[in-house]
Amino acid sequence: MKSPSVAVQQVAQPGPWLKLLWRLAFWIPLVISIAVAWTPNPAGLVASMAGSVAHIAAAGYLAFALSLAHFRQGPWPAVAAWMMVWGVTIELVQLFVDGRGAQIADLASDALGIAIGCTGYALWQRLTHRARDQADKPSRSPA
Q1: How far is residue 119's CA from residue 64's CA, in Å, rounded to a whole number?
Q2: Displacement of CA 52 from its chain's centroid (Å)
Q3: Looking at the whole model, is its pTM more than 0.85?
Q4: 53, 56, 103, 112 - which has most CB atoms within 10 Å?
Q5: Interatomic CA distance for residues 26 and 62, integer angstroms
Q6: CA 74: distance to chain centroid?
Q7: Residue 9 Cα to chain centre, angstroms
Q8: pLDDT digits (tens, 9 = 90+) for 41-77
Q9: 37/22 Cα distance (integer angstroms)
Q10: Could you give the maximum distance between any two Cα atoms of the chain, in Å?
């Protein structure tokens, strides 16, 4: 039987397949978001969501996924900076796409989504560290 510290160590260091999965969970949606941004008038693609909600959801998910895939130990400012570059790039590209345009409101929605994603990742990380700390503590049996 493995000691709790060995089990905790295995949780703290994900295997190569899990790392690959996390990276794909970031890069595939990122490519899709860029493709949607380059699509002229994609009203049918996000017909069920308001534009701001779509921006918040996409930025939040991507910020969380980027943190998980490439910045597991922090720092959130790097994630926020990379994601804002993504948001600005999307808006600049849309200046040159028929039926699309750059919107300051979209950048604000991206910033809110990034903040939500980074906060969500920080909370998730704190909860998983707390669970690891609890698993690492030796259980006391009543004497």
Answers
A1: 8
A2: 17
A3: no
A4: 56
A5: 6
A6: 12
A7: 24
A8: 655 555 545 778 888 999 999 999 999 888 877 678 9
A9: 23
A10: 76
